Amino acid sequence: MADEKRTGIQITRTPTQKEVSIVGGGIKIAASQKPIAANFAVRSGWIYVLLDSSGSMRKGQKLDQAKTGIIEFARDAFKKGYRIGFIRFSDEAEILAEPTADLDTLQNMIKGLKAVGSTNMTAAIKAAHIKLRDLSGTKVIVIATDGMPDNVKSSLEAAQRAKADGIDIISIGTDDADKEYLKKLASRTELSSKVSSDKFAQAITDASLLLTSPKSLQTK
Fold it and tell me: Least crowded by CB within 10 Å, which of 15, 51, 125, 139?
């Protein structure tokens, strides 16, 4: 065993145990060949935005309003640590973007979107639920629509199953959307809103204010 002194710090090497001890100021730090386990808190948040792209969204500027609102919503959500996926729904639901923190990816997926067909919201909720249910962290579905779904009962049932798996739902409606239906769709009354079509973009943007900070997960 050999001792070395450097400016009041004692360094002791123990060859047989392959360990080094450093003593200074009454504090001893011992290091060996074994790795030091460390836990890190990582905030994890996931969102799927579900946009009604049915034929009625052609009226006025509703689709363009929704596109603008979603991009601004994404900017704010990214700052809070969320990743965002995007699903459009009309006759069927289509996943256009998996969760990402890249604004350009979302913009490219959204810009060419056309309004056509009916309002199969059930399929969109089910698709988002499947994607989110096995993820860890804070999980949110945001639904933007201008009317009632093709099947009210099945859409509410799909929403209830998602909420039972710990997924929050925010609902935003305009025009023919029913205010009471939006309340039932959302996780809580304060997470639902109905606005005039000229305020649709702002309402979608403002939904970012309803997002809580993502849960912190312990990882090694």
Answer: 15
What is the domain count for the chain? Answer: 2
Whether the Cβ atoms of residue 86 and residue 105 lie closer than 8 Å to each other: no
**Do the bridges between strand 19-24 and strand 27-31 make them parallel or antiparallel, or are there none, so unpaired?**
antiparallel
Cα separation of 215 and 43, whole Å? 5
Instruction: For the chain, report the end-to-end CA distance as a whole number of angstroms.
Output: 34
SS3 content of the chain, % helix, strand, coil (to 5): 35, 35, 30
Q: Quick count: other Cβ atoms within 10 Å of Cβ 28?
A: 11
Q: What is the pLDDT of residues 22-56, one digit of tens each?
A: 454 455 545 555 554 545 445 689 999 999 999 99
Q: Which two tokens stand for residue 102?
A: 């890249």
23 and 116 assigned to the same domain = no
For residue 140, the enclosing domain spans 43-212
In this predicted structure, what is the pLDDT of residue 120? 98
Helices 152-164, 121-132: inter-axial angle, 10-degree rounding: 10
Percentage of the residues of the chain whose pLDDT score is greater than 70: 78
